[in-house]
Amino acid sequence: NGELFEREKFDLKKEFGLDSFERFCWMCILSGCDYLENITGIGLVKAKKVMSRTQISNIDLILKQLPQNLGKLNLRVTDDYITGFKRAHLAFLHQIVYDPIQRIQMPLNPLPDDVDREHLKYAGQLDETPLAFQHAIGNLNVKTKCIVDKFNPSQWKYRSPVSSSSSSSSVIPGHLKSIWSKEYTSRSEPFSLTSTPMSRKKIS
C-alpha cells in the first residue's frame, strides 16, 4: 500500500508557508537528504523556518545568511557545502530515471540549455545498453552487474484485478495492466483517489 501525493494539489503555502516548489526542495535538502548531509543542528523544523521567512531568491545568499537567520553566529556554512547544496538540487531535478513506456533512460526533467549533462554525472549516467532494462526490472545488481533474477515481463501471467465473482471474460482496461506489459496504456483521465476505476462487488 502507498500514499499518493500529487504536486499540483500540494498546498505549500498552507502546509509549510512556502511560495514555491523550489523552496520546498531547498527546505528538504537543507534538512538533510540522500545527496547531502545536513549541517549539524539543522533539521526539518529549522529548515522550514529559514525557507518560509526569507524572500530572497538567491540560494547562495540564503545559505550564507543561515548563521544570522538562525541566531547561531558560530555556525559554519562552507563554500563546499553551498556547492554540494546546488548539486543536490540539480540531482533532484535531473536525476536519471527509467521510462518503462519508452523503455529508455532519461533525465527526470529536461535539462536547461545552460546545464551540461557532463557536469551532472553525480545525478546518474545514461546507459543505452540492454543492461538499463535489466536493471530497471531488477534482474541485475546495479553495482556488481551480477545476475540476481531472470524475470521476463513478456512471459508474466498478469492476474486480473477483477474479483473472483466477476465474469471471466471481463476485459481489463489497459491502464490497470502492469506498466511492463506491452498492452499497457496510459489512463485517459487524471487519477483521483475518489474514483473507482472498476466496480467493486461484494465477495460472499
UniProtKB/TrEMBL annotation:
Its main location: nucleus. Its cofactor is Mg(2+). Residues 187-198 have a biased composition (Polar residues). GO terms for molecular function: 5'-3' DNA exonuclease activity; 5'-flap endonuclease activity; DNA binding; metal ion binding. Residues 185-204 are annotated as: Disordered. InterPro entries: 5-3_exonuclease_C_sf (IPR036279), HhH2 (IPR008918), XPG/Rad2 (IPR006084). It comes from the Eukaryota. Binds 2 magnesium ions per subunit. They probably participate in the reaction catalyzed by the enzyme. May bind an additional third magnesium ion after substrate binding. GO terms for cellular component: nucleus. One of its GO terms (biological process) is mismatch repair. The keyword Isomerase does not apply. 5'->3' double-stranded DNA exonuclease which may also possess a cryptic 3'->5' double-stranded DNA exonuclease activity. Functions in DNA mismatch repair. Belongs to the XPG/RAD2 endonuclease family. EXO1 subfamily. This is Exonuclease 1.
